Task: structure prediction
Amino acid sequence: MANLSTKYLGIQLKNPLVVGSCGLTGSVESIIKLANNGAGAVVLKSIFEEEIQLEFQETLKKELGYQDNNLEFFDYYDYQIKNDVLTKTAELIGRVKEATDIPVIASINCRSVGEWFSYAQKLQEAGADALELNIFKMPQQTTEAADAIDAVYLRIVEKVIAHVSIPVSVKLSPYFTNLGNIAHRLEGTGAKGLVFFNRFYNPDIDIDNIRVTSGAVYSNIGDYVLPLRWISLLSGKLKADLMASTGIHNPEGIIKMLLAGAAGVQVASVLYKNGPGYIRDMLYGLEKWMDKKCLNTIDDIHQLGKQAMPANPELFERVQFMRYFGEHNG
Ligand SMILES: Cc1cc2nc3c(=O)[nH]c(=O)nc-3n(C[C@H](O)[C@H](O)[C@H](O)COP(=O)(O)O)c2cc1C
Result:
């Protein structure tokens, strides 16, 4: 029988299937179900910088409309809201650690340098085994150069890493001019893992009522090809653990990511669609494939990927459909 245990961020996992940050990892009851069905680890629902700011603004409007420009009140409410969010997450970590034996990765979603290091410290004190930073700033100014935005990402990560001893990973978007370069520089700050990729909320347009609506929340089964490409391209070039996220909906998806060099996979959408019991099915599929291929460990899959995949990465570097269209003319 195959041994699925592996390491991610230096932490021992019983298998490489991690439940990614989402609503399913936001309560102790739901996390217990994920753990009982075999999840290797969970990334908690993120603490959102944007949400804290919105709540702060609403509180100011509601409670302090008449306290115009009273900075002391501003500070008090800002502190209070942040403290509430942190306390809730710290309590969740404590309860999950008590109720399960799986590693808990806390998650912070931030877009500015701010005080995230103090949040990170609190989450570490609460017992988080690691921290995932989900950083994305939607560029809104056409005058803002990519370099300046990259510098913010690097400063956030550097600052957090300087203030905690638990391993820190960074969840990335694919939207960089040179993804490999930012990945390399993030690794240089001390990030122990990189997650490829976050999936964003996408607005859509309702053409009957002419209004903006929400696009599809869940990923599709074919979406895995983007993280697969990048993990294949970068796995030999970086030392950080590469974690796959987006579009992993079945055992084949896990196997492909491991062959490409991923330390593990994060799943979310597929568990919303199929329920937590589907974790077992995916792990069973992985085990069966390993047995069929006579592979005993996750490292055997990594080695097989290295040997069997082309030594030159041209296939994953190719981006234009030149030949495809040449061969498919109708
Ligand atoms: C309902 C829902 C809530 C999510 N919430 C978060 C979150 O709080 N923080 C985060 O980093 N990612 C969040 N994500 C993104 C997932 O962690 C994951 O990166 C993304 O959905 C792609 O993986 P998937 O194809 O397995 O769904 C959320 C995804 C979904 C579907």
